[in-house]
Amino acid sequence: MKAPNEVVTRALLRQVNVPGLDRPAALITLDNGLDHTKPNTFGPGGLASLDEAITAALAADPAFIAVTGKPYIFCVGADIVGLPQLADRAQALEIGRLGHRVFARLKDSTVPTFAFVNGAAMGGGLELALHCHYRTLSGGAAALALPEVSLGLVPGWGGTQLLPNLIGIPAATQVIIQNPLMQNKMLKPKQAAELGIADILLEPADFLERSLEWAAGVVRGQVTVTRPAVDKDMWAGVLYFARETLNQRLHGAVPAAYKALDLLETAKDGDFAAGTAAEDEALADLVFSEELRSGLYAFDLVQRRAKRPAGAPDKGLARTITKVGIVGAGLMASQLALLFARRLQVPVVMTDLDQSRVDKGVGYVHTQIEKAVTKGRMDKNTAAKLYGLVSGTVDKSAFADADFVIEAVFEDLGVKKQVWAELEKIVSPEAVLATNTSSLSITEMAAELEHPERVVGFHFFNPVAVLPLLEIVRGERTDDVTLATAFAVGKQLKKSSVLVKDAPAFVVNRLLTRFLGTVFAAVDAGTPLDVANSALDPLGLPMRPLALLQLVGPAVAYHVGGTLHAAYPDRFSVSENLKRIADSGRPLVVDDQVNEEVAALLVVGDQPLTAEQVRQNALDALAQEIRLMLDEGVVAEAQDIDLCMILGAGWPFHLGGVTPYLDRTGTSERVTGQRFLPPGAASLPA
């Protein structure tokens, strides 16, 4: 049995003689025949192969059965590429039941079963491991997760039933619901072991040998595995709190998260058959939802398009970077210094106007390194190396031998032009000059330089260590060598880079400013702050508008808004109320509630809008702006808009970014006369 286009993961069985056992063990290795960049997945063909391997293993009367994966990969779950090909609900039910039936053979086996989790284990791969009686885990496993909710699904092969009864309901709720909704957060091996997902954590160098030895010890009775009892008394309370949290954050917008809560509730009674049957039904419901199609579209963007940026030059043109200079030593500059030192492993030097600022910046870097060591995220040898790589000075001549210099100074064109004019006399003609500007023109910034071709926009998002997007901006005279070097550096920094045309505020800030501007226009007109703030709740965005404004900073938002107003006065207004908030220096929201003292400073009209009107105005504005950006060639395609919003603004997977939602609600066609994506690209077929 094989689905169309399925790359079948074979379950390869071999007999292994293990010292101390009177008969061989059966070792099943999952391998799709491709390298580690193409992980093992399960479709119908892969499940059938595993089923056959288990049958053959049991027939040989082994000392134990163990399942492991090819190098670096255990299994990353179901073949989600095949999900849109399912014809009807009956097929969806069958794929769920097939996985349950095959995996249950390991759970119900009278022969001891082990999962040797040697590498990445996600979704159905982790669920397979949970069905085994015992689990060893490699310290080199790259990622461990049950990420289904982020896609619009639920763990559908036993995860919602097995995990809470193994590690308890609070931790299971975190892994199954909270982590997927937090930019699809993964577990490190140490975290998974501490939670109790694995019985023992082993070094990767000789992982298989040590796993076989440990398993033999279990079988002989020399190793005893103890697991703490699961507290059932707190079950209902934890799920109630989780549901309230979801309501406050998502407002019912992500059906998969609520389905997962229902399934976790079912798991309390321990009726595994009833629980897995409920998983089958939930999976069948969600497979034919718009949220899943949008989630799969977003997943494809993040996993594929982000790794092959549209329009990037030949990487062979990139220059090697041996030293980095950073102009500025404020918070953003300090974050950049730490990132460059960690990822590039080259000297990084910061400069600023006076020594006290430089010392503060270097001190921030050292403090973050110390915290990483204290929390066990960095060893002392690495920390010592990073201490030595990051330095600071007030003398810009330290940049003379730098290959890559990035500025993170005040967002003022004159200031930035002055910085580059001074630095061009110091650095070599080949050095790349990058600016972290969030809205200013790269072309204008470089216009008066002798070598404008080596200036490029390198726009990070705050916090730098968390948000993966990097907008790489090509000025009118930026050459291919500079651009290729920028993309190569972005890859070394482990960022997802998108090529952006030199246009005001680029992609994310332009759209967020238009979005927030529409909301604030409603406030200026007289709409109560709490109505405007909650108007977008049905979308399930990661933040309400006022919380987003506070994160960005009212002063920054006002400044960027002014830049865009100067460029597009017909679409971007400047709100004096936003200036009043910025000038007050006080938070507009506290614990998601409007600060009435700040609200009292606002001057508003007498034409309030309803929440529905605010929401539709905001969506209409986004549709119009995206169409204009595509017509201007700010990015190559609508997919790049969505990728930027997902990675730079946390726009949720269940919306597919921005454009699928605008298409799905009919907003795109009503406002612009056309869809952004072909029918079925991120939605159910017509």
Automatic annotation (TrEMBL):
Classification via InterPro entries: 3-OHacyl-CoA_DH_NAD-bd, 3HC_DH_C, 6-PGluconate_DH-like_C_sf, ClpP/crotonase-like_dom_sf, Enoyl-CoA_hydra/iso, FA_oxidation_alpha_subunit, NAD(P)-bd_dom_sf
Domain of life: Bacteria
Membrane listed as a keyword: no
Biological processes per GO annotation: fatty acid beta-oxidation
GO molecular function, one term: enoyl-CoA hydratase activity
Protein keywords: Fatty acid metabolism, Lipid degradation, Lipid metabolism, Lyase, Multifunctional enzyme, NAD, Oxidoreductase
Ranges of residues in domain 3-hydroxyacyl-CoA dehydrogenase C-terminal: 506-586
UniProt entry tagged with the keyword Lyase: yes
CDD domains reported in the protein's UniProt record: crotonase-like (cd06558)
Domain called 3-hydroxyacyl-CoA dehydrogenase NAD binding: residue spans: 323-502
Pfam family, one: 3HCDH_N
Signal peptide: none
Parts forming coiled coils: none
Family: In the central section; belongs to the 3-hydroxyacyl-CoA dehydrogenase family.
Protein name: 3-hydroxyacyl-CoA dehydrogenase
Protein source organism: Micromonospora inaquosa
